[in-house]
Amino acid sequence: ASERAVAAFAPDAYAWMIEELCGGDPAAMRRVTDRMRAMVGGLDVFQMRPEMPALLRKLAARGLKLGIVANQPERMGERLERDGVADLFGHLGLSGATGFHKPDPGAFLGACAALGVAPSAAIVIGDRIDNDIAPAKALGMATIRFRTGRHRRQVPRGTHETPDIDVTDVMDLERAIDRLLER
Fold it and tell me: What pTM does this model have?
């Protein structure tokens, strides 16, 4: 079900999987959804790669403006503070705070406006083609797909969804950012 949700570019993979696994039965879907929320609703499942804080500091030290556009609750800002990186970002575009959810172009344009950069000067790094890469490319932004997690198997359906660069680790990410900045 997970792979089919990814292949279908389901906006909410969990909801899609529950619907499929419950055969579309609304009562069963409600029960499973409620049970899932009760089990994991308050868990902090965010995991930052160990090398990422150093890269973020390095990029900020180079004078790059960093921002976040994420479909996350407002409390994620506290997590970034605990990880010691929140102050590196000039924009924390968490959907729970802004009301904008990716792939809404307003989420990306809001970040550009807050950082004072044109979309054509922005680089978007994301793990999803549907939520990150395609909407950013539609706005003229450069894109890097970090192939990780469930969405690493998403396949672009055309050039409008093809990232400028694919990476699989933080070292590759740094090199990819450098290549795009050289353009």
Answer: 0.86
